[in-house]
Every structure is written in structure tokens, then in C-alpha cells.
Amino acid sequence: TTYDVGIIVGSISSTSINRRLARALTVLAPEAGLRLTEIPIRSLPMYSADHDAAIPAEAAEFKRAIEASDAIIVVTPEYNRSVPGVLKNALDTASRPWGDNSLAGKPTAVIGMSIGTIGTAASQQHLRNILAFLAAPTLTQPEAYLQIQEGLITDDGTVTDVLTAEFLMSWLVAAREHFERARPALEPIPA
Ligand code: FNR
């Protein structure tokens, strides 16, 4: 079976390199048994506890899209050695109202690309912390830290370097295996 996986991109920049990376993963994914669809975060309002009583339509739609996915891949930039605020806002939105955490038990995998040589490692570490708190089991190995290189990924999501394309494919295969292993987390615990 092919898994339906939601991709959350932690950047709303019109020239986002991480959206390009998400596109590249989407192109490669079918060969790893995954069908990737972006779950957009651009129009989410800033989360407030006031929303718990009356969830904004965009937030409700975002939560439903996560819940309908077999697994979630988060592709994130690094902002000031952490996750961008737009991504934190999206995760906060998904986690509430209390008792209705859309990410609970959802298998996840994290990846990212940045200018710096550590390739979003600090950002991903913070992201792993958040996902652990939200009870969303995360792929541990292989880690995927990518550095921006001119021409590495074309507009249509073609990866021009063979070794990078092979690495991304092996990461997707590992993610698929993790999603399979983590699936029992989605099933109710037998009485
Ligand atoms: C950055 N950038 C950055 N890069 C990095 O490697 N470590 C960091 O801590 C930061 N911090 C940071 C903060 C802010 C506010 C901006 C705007 C940028 C650079 C970042 O890697 C680069 O802008 C990427 O292109 C961002 O990813 P997207 O939006 O292109 O996907």
C-alpha cells in the first residue's frame, strides 16, 4: 500500500528553498511507496487560546488534513537556530484545543535545508523536541541536513546531483519503514 503523507513546509517565502526540497521529495516519493501532498500553513491565523472555544475555519481545515494523513513530513528552514515562527504556530494550532491534538500518535519525519553548514540541525533538534511532546513518533535515522547549493534542485523539483538524489531516496525509504513501524501508535490500545 502507498501511504498518504502530508508535507508541512516551515517557510512561507515565495522563493523558499525548502518548498523546492518538498517538491523534490514529492517527485521521488512514489518509488518509496509514499504519496506526498502539501498541507499549507500560509493562511493559518496566529494561534490564541481564544480559538479553543471557536476554532477558525483555516485551523480546523489544517487539523483535519493532518488527521486524514497516514504520516507527516516536516521540511523546515532554520531561523535563528530554531524553527521559524510560522511553523511553531502551525504546530501549536495542530495541538489544540487541549485533548484534541491532531498530531498524537502520528508518525513523522523531519528534514531541512539552509545556508549554514550545519544544514538546519539546530532547527530540527528543536522540532524533534516539540514533536516528542506532541506524541508524534519521529524518524531518528538517517538524519537529513542539507546545505543550499546553487542549481541543486530545479524549479520543477529535479535533483541535479546524483548522490543527493540517492540520499533523498534512501531517506524516503527509511521514512516509509518508520511510518510502517510506528503505525501501532495509531491503533487504540486493546482493553
Ligand atoms: C535565516 N537563515 C539561517 N540559516 C541558518 O543556517 N541558520 C540560521 O539560524 C538562520 N537564521 C535565519 C533567520 C532568519 C530570520 C532568516 C530570514 C534566515 C538563512 C536561511 O537558511 C535561508 O534564508 C533559507 O533560504 C531559508 O529557507 P527558505 O525560506 O528558503 O525555505
TrEMBL record:
<protein>
    <submittedName>
        <fullName>NAD(P)H-dependent FMN reductase</fullName>
    </submittedName>
</protein>
<dbReference type="GO" id="GO:0016491">
    <property type="term" value="F:oxidoreductase activity"/>
</dbReference>
<dbReference type="InterPro" id="IPR029039">
    <property type="entry name" value="Flavoprotein-like_sf"/>
</dbReference>
<feature type="domain" description="NADPH-dependent FMN reductase-like">
    <location>
        <begin position="5"/>
        <end position="146"/>
    </location>
</feature>
<dbReference type="InterPro" id="IPR005025">
    <property type="entry name" value="FMN_Rdtase-like_dom"/>
</dbReference>
<dbReference type="GO" id="GO:0005829">
    <property type="term" value="C:cytosol"/>
</dbReference>
<dbReference type="Pfam" id="PF03358">
    <property type="entry name" value="FMN_red"/>
</dbReference>
<dbReference type="InterPro" id="IPR050712">
    <property type="entry name" value="NAD(P)H-dep_reductase"/>
</dbReference>
<dbReference type="GO" id="GO:0010181">
    <property type="term" value="F:FMN binding"/>
</dbReference>
